[in-house]
Amino acid sequence: MSNATPTRVYVARLVGLPIFDPQGDQVGKVRDLVAAVRSEVNQPRVLGLVAEVLGRRRIFVPMTRVTNIDSGQVYTTGLLNMRRFEQRPTETLVVGQMLDRSVTVPGTDVRGAVYDVGMEQARNRDWVLSRVAVQEPGSTFRRRGQTHVFEWREVDGLTRRDERQGATHLIAQLAEMKPADAASVIHDLPAERRTAVVAAMDDERLADVLEELPEEDQVEIVGNLDSERAADVLEEMSADDAADLIADLPPETAARLLGLMESEDAEDVRRLMSYAEETAGGMMTPEPVILGPDATVADALAHVRNPDLPVSLAAVVYVCRQPLETPTGRLLGCAHIQRLLREPPSSLAAAAIDPALDALRPQATIDQVAAHLATYNLVAAPVVDEAGRLLGAVTVDDLLDHMLPENWRDHEAGGTHG
C-alpha cells in the first residue's frame, strides 16, 4: 500500500467514492465492504469492496487489488473480475448489514446502535475492522444521543443476529444517493434487512427507489407492505411506472390497491393499463408539462425549472386547449425548451410551437415510437387520441425501459467472486 493511505478509514465515508485503475481512469464507485465477521474478540478481516461498475452491475474487488485509499478516491491495480457479486453465507456487508445493529459495551452503561465502522491495516498488511462508532438513543425526539468510538473487542452484539435492528443510519447513507444508486444497494440487501430499510423509508423516497428496481423486487416489496401504505407509495410513483408495477401484481391485489388509491391517481393508472404494454399508450406518462394558449414563455420556463421533473419531460411543453389535465382539450402544439429560451419571457409560449412535429397515436408500436423519436431527434413526443386531445407524452427513457432486456440492471447474470 502507498504511504499516502491513512492508517484508519471509516467505512461509511468510503461509500460513493470513485474507484480508479492504474491509468487514472474511473472504473466504478464503492458501494459497500465485505468482511468475514466471525468473532467479537478477533478483528474481522476485510475481504474486499463491493464496486458498482458500468450498467449498475456490482462486482467484488479484493483488498489485495486496492493500492491506495485517500479522502476522495480509491485506486486499484490490475484487471478487475467483472462477474456479478454474490454474497456468501460467511460474509457480512459492513454498510448494508452492520449499520444500526444494537450493541452494548460490557463494563459501561453504553447501549446504542452502530453508525460507522473503522478499518485499518494490520502488521501483515491485511485490512481489518478495528473500531466501532456507537450512537446512544436520544433523550428526546429532536436530540441525538451521545456518540462513542470503541475498539472492536470492547463491543458486544456485533456477531449476533439482531431482530430489533433498525435502519436509521443506513437510511441516512441512502438519502445521500441518487434513487438509482439507492435501489442498487437495496437490491443486494438480505431479505430481512431490506424489509427493515423499506419500513423506515418515507413514501416519496420509496416510490423513487421502486421506479429504479427490477420488476421482481418491486413486486416483492409492494407485496410485503400493508395495503394502505402500498397504495400511498403507488400514488407517489409516476403513473406509467405504477401501472407497470400494478400489472405485475396478482389481479386481486391489483384491484384492492387501485381501490385504495386516490381516485384521480387510480384513474390515470387504469387508463394506462387499458393500452397494450409495448405501445405508446402503455409507455407514456400522463403528466407532461401542459400549458394553456394564454401561457407566456415565462410561465413555461417556471414549470420546467421544477427540480423533480425528469430531464426528458422538462425538454418539451405541450400547449393545449382546456381542460389542461389529460385527456386535455385539443393539442395545439409542442414547444422545445431551446426555442423557449430564445424568446422574450412575456411572449406567448404558443408562438414558439414546432409546426412540423407530428403526434403519436396510443396504438403506435414500440418500433414506431423508436423510429419517430429517432427521425425527429426527440427526447419526448406527444400521444393524442382520434380527436387530437393530449393523452400523455412518451419519453426516450420510457422507450429504453421497455426496449432493454428485463435484467439489464444486472448486465450479466450469475457469477461469484474469487
Distance between the termini: 21 Å
Specify the biggest β-sheet.
Answer: 7 strands, mixed
| CATH overall fold name of the domain at 289-403 | CBS-domain
CATH homology group of the domain at 289-403: CBS-domain
Count every helix, treating DSSP H or I runs of 4 or more residues as helices: 16
Q: What number is the mean pLDDT? A: 88
Low-confidence stretches: 411-416
Helicity, as a percent range: 25-40%
Number of strands: 17
**In the CATH classification, which architecture of the domain at 289-403 applies?**
Roll
How big is the Rg? 25 Å
In CATH's first tier, which class of the domain at 289-403 applies? Alpha Beta
Give the overall shape: elongated
InterPro entries: CBS_dom, CBS_dom_sf, Mg_transptr_MgtE_intracell_dom, MgtE_N_sf, MgtE_transporter, PRC-brl_dom, PRC_barrel-like_sf, SH3_actinomycetes
GO cellular component, one term: membrane
GO molecular function, one term: magnesium ion transmembrane transporter activity
Keywords: CBS domain
Structural summary, described in words:
Among the domains are: 8-85, SH3 type barrels; 210-274, no CATH class; 289-403, CBS-domain. It contains 16 helices and 17 strands. Residues 411-416 have low confidence and may be disordered. Helix 3 crosses helix 5, helix 5 crosses helix 7 (227-236) and helix 15 crosses helix 16 (396-403). It is of the alpha+beta class and 418 residues long. It is elongated. The protein has helices spanning 94-98, 168-175, 179-187, 191-200, 203-210, 215-224, 227-236, 239-247, 251-260, 263-273, 280-283, 297-304, 311-314, 337-341, 366-375, 396-403; strands at residues 8-10, 18-20, 26-36, 45-53, 57-62, 66-69, 74-76, 92-93, 102-104, 111-121, 127-135, 147-151, 289-291, 316-320, 331-336, 380-384, 390-395. Helix content is 31%, strand content 22%. The strands form four sheets. Strands 2, 3, 4, 5, 6, 7 and 8 form a seven-stranded mixed sheet that branches.
